[in-house]
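Support request from a user on the community tier.

User writes: "When I paste my structure tokens into the form, the page sometimes reloads and wipes my input. The last time it worked, I copied everything first. Here is what I submitted, just in case something in the input itself triggers the reload:"
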């Protein structure tokens, strides 16, 4: 039996949407990747709002800002934030994701005209975003490895093609590294906060031997690394999937009791680093703070999801007072904060992985220096009774970042 001949035409009636858009992608309907790099205390310098089509639009790009220097333009539509597609996500959660990412931010955007053409043509924007990365792409993985008393870390490194600065990982089957998410053949990008490309192989091996009981590495498979190289995109923890880090920030939702919240907020200089920190102290027995799981000595990271580590003490107190009868605090232990500090990772980066549940909107914290010790007693607040229910987000359509 003879079958009729068939000439393939990617524009006519095929089921794969990625193939349907291929020709149009070649006609410049390709999302742009913008890498925004800010300094400590600096904003990214743009506003984000939801347009009439519930799409995220860039507005008010500040002159000389990280946003402008990255090529971001007013009217651009955001498809992804740090490699995560954000369609149908609440604006305030996208804001929270951006605020928690530290000094680096990656935005995948379409120009306004390209966006309108894509919508009119019925393109799936998610497919468009994925197609810009190519086949075989996946995120890098940040893996925390615990040493086995017999098998050690269960990994070794070899130079790729004998080139200094490019390393491949070999793992022991069912060893600590493999159980932590590292795979044989992965490319090593970063080890204990240091770029692997800056280290000779002998230093890498020495690091594994002398790192103590734990080791944290950033790895990626070879195909995905090629995708990042083609896109000229740096491989950083901010775009990684997290594999069981040992310390996590904690969210505490408080409702005022008869004597207020029942804790002190102190500004102290940490003995280990000599850095100023906002410390939760003197948690009263039976108080709302104790009931919510607050622990004496933990460091305050955020108030109502807004980062406050580098804010002035008085400003933090005002935020808590201005929150009304309820407040949500995010804290971390001192060892946990030191863990993230040594790795150079924002402590809120992987907190609940910005899980996209509705939270209260906040504007960016004015970042400033702190040079004096201060104590604020948060017992004074009046009585409040009732069920503990987190506040719903305020319905604004634009936020500054």
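"...and here is what came back when it finally went through:"
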């Amino acid at each position: 039996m003879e079958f009729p001949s068939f000439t393939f035409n990617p524009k006519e009636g095929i089921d794969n949407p990625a193939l349907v858009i291929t020709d149009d992608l070649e006609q410049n309907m390709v999302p742009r990747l913008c890498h925004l790099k800010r300094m400590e205390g600096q904003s990214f310098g743009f506003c984000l709002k939801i347009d009439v089509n519930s799409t995220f639009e860039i507005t008010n790009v500040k002159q000389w800002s990280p946003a402008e220097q990255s090529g971001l333009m007013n009217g651009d539509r955001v498809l992804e934030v740090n490699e995560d597609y954000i369609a149908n996500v609440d604006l305030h959660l996208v804001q929270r994701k951006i605020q928690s990412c530290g000094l680096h931010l990656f935005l995948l955007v379409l120009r306004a005209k390209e966006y309108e053409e894509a919508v009119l043509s019925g393109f799936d924007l998610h497919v468009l975003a994925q197609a810009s990365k190519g086949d075989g792409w996946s995120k890098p993985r940040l893996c925390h490895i615990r040493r086995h008393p017999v098998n050690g870390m269960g990994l070794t490194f070899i130079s790729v093609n004998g080139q200094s600065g490019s390393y491949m990982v070999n793992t022991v089957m069912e060893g600590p590294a493999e159980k932590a998410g590292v795979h044989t053949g992965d490319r090593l990008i970063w080890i204990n906060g240091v770029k692997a490309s800056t280290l000779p192989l002998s230093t890498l091996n020495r690091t594994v031997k002398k790192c103590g009981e734990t080791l944290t590495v950033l790895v990626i498979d070879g195909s995905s690394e090629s995708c990042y190289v083609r896109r000229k995109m740096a491989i950083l923890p901010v775009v990684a999937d997290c594999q069981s880090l040992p310390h996590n920030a904690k969210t505490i939702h408080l409702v005022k009791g008869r004597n207020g919240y029942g804790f002190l907020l102190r500004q102290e200089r940490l003995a280990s680093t000599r850095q100023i920190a906002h410390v939760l102290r003197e948690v009263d027995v039976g108080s709302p703070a104790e009931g919510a799981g607050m622990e004496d000595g933990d460091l305050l990271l955020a108030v109502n999801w807004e980062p406050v580590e580098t804010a002035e003490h008085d400003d933090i107190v005002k935020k808590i007072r201005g929150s009304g009868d309820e407040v949500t605090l995010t804290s971390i232990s001192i060892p946990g904060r030191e863990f993230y500090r040594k790795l150079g990772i924002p402590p809120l980066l992987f907190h609940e992985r910005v899980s996209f549940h509705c939270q209260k909107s906040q504007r960016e914290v004015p970042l400033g220096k702190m040079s004096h010790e201060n104590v604020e007693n948060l017992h004074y607040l009046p009585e409040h009774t009732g069920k503990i229910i987190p506040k719903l987000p305020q319905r604004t359509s634009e936020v500054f970042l």
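Agent notes: The reload is a front-end session timeout and is unrelated to the input. The radius of gyration is 24 Å. Confidence is low (pLDDT under 50) at residues 1-22, 354-377, 379-395. Escalated to web team.
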